Amino acid sequence: MVICGPGGVGKGTIASRLVAEVNDLSLSRSWTTRRRRRGERDDSYLFVTREEFEDAIAKDRFFEWAEFLGNLYGTPRPDPDMDSDLLLEIDIQGAKQVRQKDPDAAVILVIAPSSDEQRHRMVSRGDDKGTIDERVAVGQREVSEALKFADYVVVNDDLNRAVSEIASIINSLRSK
Length: 176
Ligand code: 5GP
Hints:
This protein is an alpha/beta fold. The protein has helices at 11-21, 50-58, 92-101, 115-124, 129-146, 159-175, and strands at residues 2-4, 25-27, 31-32, 46-47, 62-68, 71-76, 85-90, 107-111, 152-155.
């Protein structure tokens, strides 16, 4: 299951809530070359150097990877024997790669109710103000692209509602 969307739509919060509330669902731990933010949990990513990341690309260790704002992010190839469903919380470029590689993956696109709301969330979580307008514009272009391949589109207008909508999607996929 893939949760994707542009920056500032709240997909990280939604993904953490889902793994806490839905049985047998685990969150894939991505690798990144980004530095750990102040106060960020050290298990939120595997923080690696660019050399370590490029070495893993060369060894074909990633299921998908992408560059985002100058840093590399990637999903390690999942363990084929794991007995829970795997949730990926990744950007739209990565979701497009998953879509191409795994026809069984369910791609859920999360969008903000408006670009003003998305901008507001980026400001309140302390993102660099100089790049917010550009990131909102890039996000809008990515969303138009993602609408072509996503299986579900969920508007994050209210966190509890969005989480329960996605939990219902997961339950209905499991019962199929
Ligand atoms: P952040 O630096 O704010 O934690 O994440 C930046 C962006 O990278 C977010 O859109 C996040 O969803 C995305 N991201 C996190 N992990 C991965 C990954 O493994 N692959 C891809 N393609 N994007 C990721």
